[in-house]
Every structure is written in structure tokens, then in C-alpha cells.
């Protein structure tokens, strides 16, 4: 994929470097960039490719989006990855010939893209996932009977990472096709916990179509098919499905079902430590995040519950950035609907700080910022800058 070159990045890199108390030589060495190149970038004498941007951001331990001027779009790379993902899907059963790494190397690569997904590093994810998907399709076609299930499991996880790009960046048809590939690969794993993961992700197609009742029915069937074992992985798989079911029940206005599934998720969450199981964060903290989500989905008299949770608790840093950012986006909506516009704007700013790429592409962020601008109830200059950053008012 051809590289994108960004301009006007130098001052922000220099600022972040000084905050990190690094010399130019130290940053260049850590990022694997020539010192002369870094000096020219900081002086604005040359642009920076997305590959170098990611290397510098990694050395500074920050999101690449934080280094870009507001008029630059870090999502260009993501959008340019979509045709490559579509091409993989067109030929997944008969992929073109090409190299395939050994199974341990493929597992490491899939773990890396899964980490990018959980931390909402979508630009980095877009660089790696199209080629990795194609490679896994080749690997699955040639896998031995002994390795086939493991390669299929890796393909499921890589599809999930790719779907994060498609779904969050508005390519809903591509997302649905990726989920179909997940289902195809998952059926070859012969593992009910993988099937549970696929059902969890598949819910996105029902959210996109606003087919909430059908989505709830699918999730309830998936819960029944998930093993009732006492091991953490099985408990977490069932708990995650209940969390998802609670939210989609709330979206359908079915408060009783939402509360029932939330209670089931809470009971299961109390039996396992917070962690990432089969690619999904689950545990007591994740359930509490979903308690806020359910309250917002139900709206009206339930909003006070979301505000109460936020008064008593905040998501710990150990939760994946995408989930923490989502909590503050949901909370911001509850605050806005409760007549607390300043608090709502504050929550959106926290969501942006935690996971800029996630917040920028979230439909609710754009809608709520646009509403705040109409209300003119927050600092006008700050709000206008935020709205420009997330393209509030743009079509979604």
C-alpha cells in the first residue's frame, strides 16, 4: 500500500519529545530514524510518512493521531485499507500464492493486531491487517490437519481486528462480509468458545440494521450453546454474550430482558478476574461499563443510573483503551440528555484523550458535539475546535 505523507507534524513531535525529556538523538535512535531526518521533520523541511509517524509515536509512547495537526486526517490510511480488505474477501477460498510464515510467527502477528484493536490504534491496525488476512487465508488452504484448527482460530481473530476498522469507519457492508468470513473460519475450529466470540461480534450486523430483537434472539441462542463449564474462559464467554445481550435488549426497549442479562453478566463477572478472554474484555469492570451502556440505551428514567455509576466509579487504566473511551462517550450522552452539557463535553474530552481514533470516528461523539454547539453551552472556541477535529455534522 502506498505511503501517505503528512505535513506540519514537526512542532508537535518536538513538543512531545520535550515533554518526554528526550533529545533529538535519543528519539531518532529509539524510533529507528536517521537523526538528520528527524531534525528536518521538526523544522518542517520535510513531511513524514505514516510508517515513520508510527515509529516516532511508538518511541514517544503516544497515539500517532496526537502528533498530527487538526487539519490532517489520520484516518486516510484506514480508508485506503478498505479496498485491500475487500480484495482479500473476494478470494479467501482461493487466495493467490504467496509466502506464509510459520505458525508461531502468525500467532504473534495476530496477537499484535488484536492489541492494536483493543487499544484503538486503528491507523497501525490498517497497515498490518490486510496483508495478514491474505496470508492467513493462504495458510489455511495449505494447513495440515493437525494445524488447521489453530490457523482457523487465528483467522477468526484477524477478521475481528479487520472488522473493527470496517465497522467503526462506516463500511458496514464490508463489516458484514468480514463477519461472514469469521463465521466460515470459526466453523472449522470446532470450538464452542470461538463460536461464542463470533456470535458476540456478529451482533454488529444487527446493530447496523437496527434489528435489535433479532439480534437479541441470536445472542440468547448463542448463550445456550456455550458450554456451562467453570473455567474462566467459558465463564467469560457466556458473560460477554450476556453483556452484549443486555445492550441490544436496551436498544430494543426491552428493559426486563436488559436487566436479566445484565444480572447474569454481573454474576459471571464476579467469578473471573478482569481480563481479555478470546479477544473480549470481561470481568467486573467491563460489566460496570455495560451497566452505563444499558442505562443509556433505555434512556429517560434510567439515565440517573448511568450518572450514579460515574459518581461512584471510573474505569481503571487496566481496561482496554477502546472500552474506557466508550464508557466516557456513553456517559457524555447520559449527561447531555440529563441537561448537563458542560459535564458532557468534559466526558467527550476524556474519551478523546484515552483513545483519539476511537472517539473521532464514533457517531455519537459527532452527534453530541453538534448538539452542544447548537446549545452554545460550552466554551465556544474549545467546542468549535473539538467539532472540527471530529467532523461533527459530517455524514456518518
Compact overview of the structure:
With 396 residues, the chain is mainly alpha-helical.
Question: Describe it for me?
Answer:
Helix 10 (192-209) packs antiparallel against helix 11 (212-225). The protein folds into 4 domains: 1-72, Orthogonal Bundle (434 Repressor (Amino-terminal Domain)), CATH 1.10.260; 73-188; 191-298; 325-396, no CATH class. The chain has helices at 10-19, 24-31, 35-43, 50-60, 76-90, 103-118, 122-142, 148-168, 172-186, 192-209, 212-225, 232-251, 255-269, 284-298, 303-312, 321-337, 341-354, 356-361, 363-375, 380-390, and strands at 5-6, 48-49, 275-277, 280-282. The radius of gyration is 22 Å and the shape is globular. The model has no long low-confidence stretch (mean pLDDT 92). 70% of the residues lie in helices and 3% in strands. With 396 residues, the chain is mainly alpha-helical. A hairpin with a 2-residue loop joins strand 3 and strand 4.
Amino acid at each position: 500500500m502506498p505511503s501517505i505523507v503528512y505535513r506540519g507534524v514537526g512542532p508537535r513531535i518536538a513538543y512531545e519529545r520535550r515533554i518526554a525529556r528526550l533529545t533529538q538523538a535519543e528519539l531518532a535512535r529509539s524510533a529507528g530514524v536517521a537523526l538528520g531526518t528527524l531534525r528536518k521533520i521538526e523544522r518542517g523541511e520535510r513531511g513524514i510518512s505514516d510508517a515513520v509517524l508510527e515509529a516516532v509515536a511508538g518511541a514517544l509512547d503516544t497515539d500517532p493521531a496526537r502528533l498530527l495537526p487538526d487539519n490532517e486526517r489520520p484516518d486516510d490510511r484506514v480508508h485506503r485499507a478498505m479496498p485491500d480488505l475487500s480484495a482479500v474477501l473476494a478470494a479467501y477460498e482461493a487466495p493467490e500464492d504467496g509466502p506464509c510464515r510459520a505458525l508461531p510467527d502468525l500467532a504473534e502477528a495476530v496477537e499484535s493486531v488484536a492489541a492494536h484493536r483493543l487499544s484503538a490504534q486503528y491507523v497501525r491496525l490498517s497497515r498490518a491487517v490486510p496483508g495478514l488476512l491474505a496470508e492467513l487465508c493462504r495458510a489455511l488452504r495449505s494447513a495440515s490437519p493437525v494445524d488447521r484448527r489453530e490457523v482457523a482460530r487465528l483467522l477468526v481473530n484477524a477478521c475481528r481486528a479487520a472488522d473493527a476498522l470496517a465497522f467503526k469507519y462506516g463500511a458496514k457492508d464490508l463489516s458484514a462480509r468480514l463477519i461472514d468470513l469469521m463465521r466460515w473460519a470459526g466453523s472449522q475450529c470446532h470450538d464452542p468458545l470461538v463460536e461464542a466470540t463470533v456470535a458476540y461480534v456478529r451482533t454488529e450486523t444487527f446493530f447496523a440494521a437496527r434489528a435489535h430483537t433479532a439480534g437479541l434472539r441470536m445472542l440468547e441462542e448463542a448463550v445456550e450453546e456455550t458450554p456451562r463449564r467453570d473455567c474462566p474462559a467459558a465463564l467469560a464467554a457466556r458473560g460477554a454474550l450476556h453483556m452484549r445481550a443486555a445492550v441490544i435488549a436496551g436498544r430494543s426497549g426491552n428493559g426486563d430482558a436488559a436487566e436479566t442479562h445484565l444480572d447474569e453478566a454481573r454474576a459471571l463477572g464476579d467469578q473471573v478476574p478482569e481480563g481479555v478472554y478470546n479477544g473480549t474484555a470481561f470481568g467486573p469492570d467491563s460489566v460496570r461499563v455495560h451497566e452505563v451502556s444499558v442505562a443509556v440505551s433505555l434512556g429517560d428514567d434510567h439515565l440517573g443510573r448511568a450518572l450514579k455509576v460515574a459518581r461512584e466509579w471510573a474505569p481503571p487504566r487496566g481496561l482496554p483503551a477502546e472500552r474506557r473511551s466508550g464508557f466516557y462517550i456513553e456517559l457524555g450522552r447520559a449527561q447531555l440528555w440529563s441537561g448537563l452539557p458542560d459535564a458532557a463535553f468534559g466526558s467527550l474530552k476524556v474519551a478523546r484523550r484515552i483513545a483519539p481514533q476511537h472517539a473521532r470516528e464514533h457517531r455519537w461523539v459527532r452527534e453530541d458535539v453538534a448538539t452542544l454547539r447548537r446549545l452554545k453551552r460550552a466554551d465556544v472556541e474549545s467546542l468549535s475546535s473539538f467539532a472540527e477535529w471530529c467532523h461533527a455534522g459530517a455524514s456518518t
